[in-house]
Amino acid sequence: MSDFLRIFAANNTSHPMKLPKPLLSAVATTLVLAGCATATMTDNPQQQSANKLLTESPNRHGIESFGEITTDDYREALQEGMREQKAEIQAIVESKESPTFANTIEPMDKSGKLLRRAMMPFEALDNSNSTAASQALAEEMAPLLSAHSDKIYMNDALFRRVKQVYDDKPAGLTHEQTRALEEIYKSFVRSGANLSAADKARLMALNQEISTLEIQFEQNLLHETNNTFVVVDRLEDLAGLPQANIDRAADMAKQQGQEGKWAFNMQRASCNPVLQYCSNRELRRRIYDAYYNRGNAGGAHDNKAICARLVRLRLERAKLMGFDNCAAQILDKRMAKRPEAVYALLDQIWEPAVKKAREELSDIREEMLKDGLDCEPEGWDYAYYADRARKARFDFDEKEASQYFEIHNVLRGIFYVANKLYGVTFKEVTPDVPAYEATAQAWEVYDKDGSLLAVFYSDYYPRDGKRAGAWCTHFRSQSYADGKRVEPVVVNVCSMTPPSADMPALQSIDNVQTMFHEFGHALHGFMRDVNYEAVGDVERDFVELPSQINEHWAMEPEVLAVYAKHYKTGEVMPEALVSKIEESGKYGQGFATVEYLAASYVDMDLHTLTSVPDDLDVMQFEEEKMAARGIPRQILPRYRVTNFSHTMGGGYTAGYYSYIWAEVLDADGFEAFKETGDIFNQEVADRFRRYVLTPGGIDDGMTMYKRFRGAEPKIDALLKGRGLK
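RESULT FIELD:
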């Protein structure tokens, strides 16, 4: 799976500043990250005379002129958007007509158009092109937006109207309208509509403080990721590191005023190659410690106190709403429903994963002995010696494979799969639509009948101001206006390996899978076709199904033959190398699964607490929980608590398990294609589009999955796919 999912910061999808509930779009932001040089929010108000967010955009597809919008423009548009939505809600409340779907539910669902228009690009750009000004605005607006949302959902008069429509159960509604009514009513109840006045006031205060802390956490993590450097003075200390990575490290050092040295920050594209290829054990240790201790090194950007405070406040909020713990409250609206169901799934996989990881550690010990190291492996030994063990066992060198994964060819392979499955085609329109980033490309996406389906931006390289990880986000989600479908504007953001002076952007297998993963989210966004925002979202533990199933095509021989071409010769990847990729694909899954499950357990353990000690040390808590479960000491959770954006940033709180939950679905779902003998079987692809990609959240996830597959999923395909069975 991808770095965003399996090694992901994604795999994250979490955006700290949440849209008010009526404005939430159907596609998760996934989290996990890409980028380059910048055309982002400007801080100079003299660059324009009018706020372009307050007037209709004349650009192609109505896309905003990103480079001409200042942070002051965003502030003004967000404030005006809240005022406008407040007036729209007040008009519903003051209506003299008896409440109906048409005069209460529908206008509430459609309210907040201006706020949505300002919020979506601001949030997207603050995560990918963050500046000091945008960070300050995000922190300023978070409590205001939280309070705005609370005032809507705690409005007694509005709730009475909604409840009356819900209780009346009006005849003649479509299935989608019925679902929208149910979801809006439940949103009121889950947001505190039934609380006393005093409890509502406390809930609003909790929501505002939590949203502010989540933003502070993300901003600290962004700083720790992009501004924590390990500097190397001697070239010989980089032995084994590919030349392209050495060149990029030299450029980074030069940018830091240390020309003649080599610098690595904590973006995976920078530090991961050191851990995998560099023979200098001490350098690997320095990189490893710096990466895993982001937010845990003291100073102004330390996250420990923020994390402990978040755990405490989230528990208080859950109890205020009548739940035993935070996880119970959150899972009430997920497929899993109860914490016990999550633990039951994780526990089924933990034992075989740990067993496999211990087998892999035996291989690593053998490789270390070849270097005269008669000692126990450490965490910073794993990637390096596992790579050597893979080479020894399968005669496979990933550096050789990466020569066939030039980033533009990979994207062509992604488009090929989408075309073969769903008939969609892509036309690059980069010069014709507004750019928000110099290296981002733009595409029009056309459906198989030739109609415009979506606009797609690909933003693949790391840069300052971009969060770590990979995710899919939107500048505009799919909707209807005056009976016509408004095409979504969808963005894939990743931190892939960038080009260097002498080398194109050659990707690792994990990066290739990440690109396929995030594009699966994009497909979900392209194809959504709903009339009501209230049914736009699927459950968090269902949202990764479209992305993870799309990964399955990445390494299929039929697909590799299309896009895996040598960057110098254009030669298609030889069958022998394809076979080695296939044979070695499951190697290392013990470690990868254990580190993922470890993070999932810590997320759940923190959020199933029923009381929080005043002196909670989140790092000690993590260590004790891992020791109690018998995790091999060489493996840390994929994210330590202080850099665990998924849970502490708010997007996947008590929800990091969602990736493995969805993997049960995606592994079983891909079997539906394999069983036909055709990975592009049109009947199966049509069912997947109809029942999974198109309907948003008009039904619960399991109902939609069973319509596609005909039965509930089994875990067997997951265990087999990870080599654990």
